[in-house]
Amino acid sequence: MTIKDLTAKYDPSNQFEVLKKTYEQIEFAWNNKINLSQIKKKGIETIVITGLGGSAISGDLFANFFKDELDVPFYVNRSYTLPSFADKNSLLVVSSYSGNTEETISVFNQALKKKCRIVCITSGGKVEKIAEKNKIPVVKILPGFHPRYSLGLSFFSLLKVMNKLKIVKVKPLLVDSIIKLYKDKATTYSKEKNLAFKLAEQLIGFIPVIYSAESYTSSIGYRFKCQFNENSKLNAYQNILPEMNHNEIVGWESFNENQKVKVFNILDKNYHTQIKKRFTITTEILTQAGVEVINLESNEKSFKVRLMDLIYLCDWITYYAGILRGFDPAEIRNIDLLKTKLSS
User: Fold this and answer.
1) What b-and-e string marks burial along 59-98, b requiring 16 or more CB atoms within 10 Å of the CB?
2) Which of 102, 121, 265, 290 has the most CB atoms at less than 10 Å from its CB?
3) Which pLDDT score is estimated for 321?
4) CATH of 193-324, one of 3.40.640.10, 3.90.25.10, 3.40.50.2300, 3.40.50.10490
5) Each residue's pLDDT tens digit, 119-132
6) CATH of the domain spanning 13-174
7) Is 246 part of the annotated catalytic residue set?
8) Is residue 146 annotated as part of the catalytic site, yes or no?
9) Catalytic: 230?
């Protein structure tokens, strides 16, 4: 079947077009007018972004993006409780695409009591109502997307907030470069037998195991794993180097061909010399054990652009892995069932 046939059969809500037009989300988020004048910029000692799922990954990506530039502790919180260190000198970014994520709302209410400096990124819901009631600034993003398909909105809204508060400096040229890249790649990845499609084909019947590098590409590995879960309806596993070399590498000693797995290495030329060496040796060990290892690496000049390049490729791979296996990439029935039971 062609890509057109597969999307017609298994993608009734047309997430294919949503993926193709991710660059439009970036354009909207970066050009969206925001008012953060009521947030005191001086004296921010810690930064917390609180969210779950697709609304939290922007925090992970931000930490990788600015790993050498952030001069205050940055923490991504995925729970019902506000970290105990958060106080009036903490900046809390409440990230909830729907605005109704119960864990995030719980943290939001705790942060109000502790008088944190708060900004919300949401399309509406309860988060927006609580923010309006308490005169908390809201960065309003476009509704109508699945959270995992709205990374362009959530991440670039976060960039805009941090740039506006002068926590980091984001050059417009960087954003323009990413928009151009996404426009070009959207054309490439929507053609028949493109790289993302071919990699998805190779995965049929296999479980993906993903290895990335701590601080550099850990967000890519985790995003890739989660996108396999939701888009492809496929269990996937991820770990980071060097940590994986201190435990998980031993597990491969018992590997046999009946274990249907393939390994993805997320690579980058900026890796610490020893991390590069560790990936090389780890790959040798796995290959000798009979494991197929697939390397993913971007050739873009800028580290930040390379991160966005890889995350977009991974999104397309997982989309195609879903429709090739006969699943609607938009459906998340188990999550919907869980939410229904939790609310009853």
Assistant:
1) bbbbbbbbeeeeeeebebbbeeebbeebeebbbbbbbbbb
2) 121
3) 98
4) 3.40.50.10490
5) 999 999 999 999 99
6) 3.40.50.10490
7) yes
8) no
9) yes
